[in-house]
Design goal:
heterodimer; A: mainly alpha; B: mainly alpha; Sodium/glucose cotransporter; 26 helices
Chain lengths: ~110, ~600
């Protein structure tokens, strides 16, 4: 599909603000991802190899294992909330500034559209 | 068999109401479908919260709605643990997939894959993997749906499958993504409200105290008897209280930890590679809306699984695991039976109204999920293979594109009905796991790396798709999931050999009844397998002990993308990296789609 505006993608990549956005976003995203996956796999690992701990009763008949499984929901929701808050307050703004500067009217021969 | 025989008209009326509601929506939606973009992505006019509800509707299939409540009611803790992976899966979707896909995609999975790659080759492998994943998932849904409708309203299996198929076809064919989205929203809303109502009624007597509710569950003799059945000889030395408490502890369902981790990997990474889930991101306009829709979906899906905890334990407490398993061995009827009990029981009007309502929601669930899958498969066929490959380079009018989409819908729909009827009586539960495994091993590495790795190219995508799919399917074919006649016969003979001793030792009529059942099954197994010695694949015993291939096939898929990309270097793909990377992070030119 032909596009009517040409964008100089290389210029965006070279833009120090984009590189800053990329650095912050990558570190944040992959860090959160590792945290989330790591926390998730603690559940089957605990259920398989730490059964005495999981069976420990803490609140009436409720044991550690049940609380841990419930905490998985809380952690997943917290990660979603934390990510969207930071993305909305920080990444969206940075991206919008970059877009505003680079999405000007087409210049002949500019851009990288294949 | 029909579990609501006395009040058949209530069931039919409730079903009629839900179907009529979705039909009205389809009628209005049909008037809005003019272009391919309307048909595949509702013209991009869906808002974040709407898409979140629709996504939850797509995801909360009968397997998760009825299946997980059933697992909890039969196996306690392990069933709940199983549900966790289904929510955590959305973290990967939110963080890595949703926004970049919205920013560079258009209608299908292949649109993302072919952005900087050879469009012909990537479209073909992308469409093939979409069709593979969708067909596995679709078959499981159709067979599960057929059995369910048969149990719920007592019509023959073949007619049930046909009803599901025809109803689904009418949504997709006339209303495209617009109707499918609204059917998903209505269904998700009905599902959540019905569950919430039942949970409130179950929980209120305990003053909404979790320990008080669960204390009643573990003190229940029906639950304790169930734990005795599951544990077998190991239950011998445990007291009644210990048996009940065991229901809240891990290990009743999942016996092999590696299997469970493997299944967890397939769930957590596979969701981000499911074509019908990816496709939903193209129905919203911006990355912000895509993000919002995933957060909505996570709230609804997670909230639903928390409700499922109460549905499952509530069914175990009030209906009893043995009674649930008697209606359906997989426990699928736990939710509907609990609804009937809560409403006043099998003899009351309100009990049967509740049963009918939950059943109608379950029916809507199956039809809606199948509609989403058929739409994804049809888009791969029409948009990727027909418009993108067969008619590549030639102009296609919007009318001809919609026509191609509709023809593909009818083809996929007819196929799904035929497969559903042909697979009658087969154990298809393994197919859902397999669909996730293929999505995690083929689609996920390819989508993730083309978005996040500069050197990813056509060679990598083709290698990753093929290796991921073949590894996941191949490993499943040699896994313990298939039927191995030698093992089945050995187990059956063991039952028959110990029959006399067990009969002498039995204390209660229930034990004798269970024994009769086991003996009957053993005889049927021996008769069914005759003199066969090998599985469908010609194996006497499984080559691997893994039930889900994820832990092997996912790394293989990633490895294939790396090796394929490095072997077949492509200057153009690397040259376009800046464009792909800048675009997915800024949302520039969003909804302009791929260049070719």
């Amino acid at each position: 599909m032909a596009t009517d505006i040409a964008v100089d993608w290389d210029a965006i990549i070279r833009d120090p603000r984009f590189q800053d956005l990329h650095r912050r976003k990558s570190r944040f995203l992959w860090g959160l991802m590792a945290l989330s996956v790591g926390y998730y796999f603690l559940l089957p690992i605990g259920a398989a190899w730490f059964q005495p701990l999981f069976r420990e009763r803490v609140w009436g008949v409720i044991n550690v294992g049940l609380l841990f499984a419930l905490s998985e929901f809380a952690v997943a929701w917290a990660i979603a909330w934390y990510y969207s808050r930071r993305a909305g307050r920080e990444f969206d703004q940075l991206a919008a500034q970059i877009v505003a500067d680079h999405a000007g009217p087409a210049s002949p021969g500019g851009g990288h559209s294949a | 068999m029909n579990i609501s025989s006395g009040y058949h008209w209530v069931t039919l009326l409730t079903f009629g109401f839900v179907i009529a509601l979705t039909m009205i929506v389809t009628y209005f939606a049909a008037q809005r479908v003019r272009s391919a973009s309307d048909f595949y992505t509702a013209g991009g006019g869906v808002s974040g919260w709407q898409n979140g509800w629709a996504k939850a509707g797509d995801y909360l299939s009968a397997a998760s709605f009825l299946g997980i409540a059933g697992l909890i009611s039969l196996y306690g803790y392990d069933g709940f643990m199983y549900s966790v992976g289904w929510l955590v899966a959305y973290v990967a979707v939110l963080l890595l997939i949703a926004e970049p896909c919205r920013n560079i995609g258009r209608y299908t999975l292949s649109d993302i894959l072919c952005y900087r790659n050879d469009p012909r080759k990537t479209r073909i492998v992308g469409a093939l993997s979409t069709l593979t994943v969708s067909t596995f998932y679709l078959t499981a849904q159709m067979v599960g749906g057929g059995v369910l409708v048969k149990t719920l309203i007592g019509i023959p299996y073949e007619i049930s499958v046909l009803c599901v198929g025809v109803l689904m076809l009418s949504y997709v064919l006339f209303g495209g993504m617009v109707a499918t989205t609204w059917v998903q929203i209505i269904k998700a809303f009905l599902l959540v409200s019905a569950s919430l109502l039942i949970v409130m009624l179950v929980w209120a007597p305990y003053g909404f105290s979790l320990p008080a509710f669960l204390a009643d569950v573990v003190a229940d003799p029906k639950v304790q008897a169930r734990v005795t059945t599951v544990l077998g000889d190991a239950a011998g030395s445990l007291s009644a209280a210990e048996l009940g408490q065991r229901f809240l502890e891990p290990g009743l369902y999942f016996k092999a930890p590696v299997d469970q981790i493997s299944l967890g990997m397939a769930l957590v990474f596979g969701t981000a590679g499911l074509p019908h889930i990816l496709m939903r991101f193209f129905t919203v306009r911006t990355a912000q809306q895509a993000r919002r829709s995933v957060v909505w979906a996570m709230v609804i899906i997670g909230g639903f699984y928390v409700l499922t905890l109460f549905l499952g334990f509530g069914a175990a407490l009030h209906v009893g695991p043995a009674n649930i398993a008697a209606v359906d061995a997989g426990g699928n009827m736990a939710g509907p039976l609990l609804a009937q009990y809560i409403g006043g029981g099998a003899e009351s009007f309100f009990g049967n109204f509740m049963l009918a309502f939950v059943s109608a929601v379950a029916f809507a669930t199956i039809v809606a999920v199948v509609a989403g899958l058929v739409l994804a498969a049809a888009s791969a066929m029409a948009h990727d293979l027909y418009v993108g490959v067969v008619r590549a380079g030639r102009e296609t009018t919007p009318q001809s594109q919609v026509k191609a989409a509709r023809i593909a819908t009818v083809v996929v729909g007819a196929m799904s009905i035929a497969i559903g009827i042909a697979a009658k009586g087969q154990n298809v539960a393994v197919l859902v796991g397999l669909a996730f495994a293929v999505a995690a091993s083929a689609n996920f590495p390819c989508v993730l790396l083309t978005l996040h790795w500069r050197r990813c190219n056509t060679g990598g995508i083709v290698a990753g798709m093929l290796v991921g799919t073949i590894a996941a399917v191949g490993l499943t074919l040699v896994s313990p999931n298939l039927s191995y006649p030698l093992a089945i016969r050995a187990a059956a003979h063991k039952v028959l050999d110990t029959e006399a001793a067990k009969r002498a030792a039995a204390h209660s009529p229930q034990e004798l009844l269970a024994l009769d059942k086991a003996v009957g099954k053993a005889r049927a197994d021996i008769a069914r397998w005759g003199s066969a010695t090998t599985s469908f694949m010609g194996l006497e015993r499984p080559l691997i002990e893994l039930k889900n291939p994820g832990i092997i096939s996912i790394p293989l898929g990633f490895l294939a993308v790396f090796i394929g990309s490095l072997l077949f270097r492509d200057k153009r793909a690397e040259g376009m990296w800046n464009e792909v990377y800048a675009r997915q992070n800024t949302g520039l030119l969003v909804s302009k789609g791929s260049h070719r």
